[in-house]
Amino acid sequence: MIRRVSILINLLVASAFLLAACGAQPAAPAQEPAAPTAEQEATAPPAEEPTAEPAPEEPAWEAPKGTLGAVPVTEAPTLDGVADEEFWAYAPAVTVEVENGTNTRKTTVTLQAVYTEDSVYFLVTYADPTESYLRSPWEMQADGSWIQLKDPNDKGGDNNLWYEDKFAMIWPINNSIPDFETLGCFTACHEGDTPDAKPFGNKYTAAEGQLGDMWHWKSVRNLNQIHDQWLDWTRYSADSTGAGRHSDPAESGGYKDNKTEDGSLPAFMPAGDFPRDGSPGYILASEAVPFDPSLFQPGDRLPSIVISEFVGDGGDIAAGWAYVDGMWILEFGRKLVTGSDLDIAFDDLLATYYFGVAVFDNAQVRHSYQEGAVPFIFLPPQ
């Protein structure tokens, strides 16, 4: 019995050594993958290249709200107030509400713009119920004397009855008027300033060095032009009754009062046959002849202004206009850069410029005005 147990133990020990010996055998070497065949290489999908992270896109530039964009054109418009050029039909328009003026309290101004290689042009239209051209005309009285018709409520520079229609734009020169892009013409308006001398106040900029370019259309006194003027910080005084408003220098031309040296009579009348009702409100200097009172009857009228074109800086802005069906239509333009320090220079077609507008309905100073300003840009060719 003991002998059988001993044999069994020896068998178990021997088995253990055999199993240990088998576990210690080295593993068979791993086979290397076979090289791909030509057919496999041809049909294998191309290796994916790592994709680069997309660069962040810059936000597209957007024009400020209410921006007037000038469209490039190859030919300048004919400045006649007809506006029949094809490009006016597609040039983008911006509208501006003006209000709080006398006579017409409120109206809407529509503006469009185009530009050529060297000039910029504007089309402006707005409603006005009357064409005002009898600007303080002379009238012959029953006793043969002559008087100029006046607004009885005018206490000085505030004629709202016998006057003309006007339109104005102001541009800051070299961005020299702070806050103009938000306040517009309010930066230079001083209503109630010197009320005893000027009931509607004065216009001037707030500080030295602040300059504005003022384009002032006068329906009676201008001829084929808009009067080019400028604005600075001058305050009202006996020597500067216009305060900050000044006319650009002119070598000759412009307008002057039609009166004798003592102011008692007209100095000129039109040549040839002419209307006796005071129309069209002016006498062309090229057609003016000395006044002959024997040709008139009581009640006859004569214009109080003799006009011609400005020669020089004051005549930089060419213009034409028409009054049609209760609407004023103005076309005007000038060089992008005039070379005058008193004019805004459109010398950067990528810049944003600003302007403000005002409308005068038969009013010397009490105009309807815009709140804020209009941004103006030059659109690139399409």
Explain this structure to me?
This protein has 382 residues and is mainly beta. It has one domain (68-378): Sandwich (Immunoglobulin-like). The protein contains four helices and 23 strands. The chain has helices spanning 2-23, 38-43, 87-90, 180-183; strands spanning 68-72, 94-99, 106-115, 119-127, 138-140, 146-148, 166-172, 189-190, 202-203, 212-218, 225-231, 245-247, 252-257, 268-270, 283-284, 288-290, 301-302, 305-311, 317-324, 327-335, 353-360, 368-369, 374-378. It has a ten-stranded mixed beta barrel. It has a three-stranded antiparallel beta sheet with strand order 6-5-17, with no helix packed on it. A hairpin with a 6-residue loop joins strand 2 (94-99) and strand 3 (106-115). Mean pLDDT is 88; it is low at 1-33.
Strand order within the widest sheet? 1-3-4-20-19-11-10-7-21-23
Into which percentage range does the β-strand content fall?
25-35%
The average pLDDT is 88
Order of helices and strands, N to C?
Answer: HHEHEEEEEEHEEEEEEEEEEEEEEEE
C-alpha Rg, in Å? 41 Å
Number of strands: 23
CATH arch. level architecture? Sandwich
- Report the principal-axis shape: globular
- Quickly name the level 1 CATH class: Mainly Beta
Main sheet specs: 10 strands, mixed, barrel
Quickly give the structural class. Answer: mainly beta
What's the number of helices? 4
For the termini, the CA-CA separation is 115 Å
- Specify the helix fraction band: under 10%
Count structural domains: 1
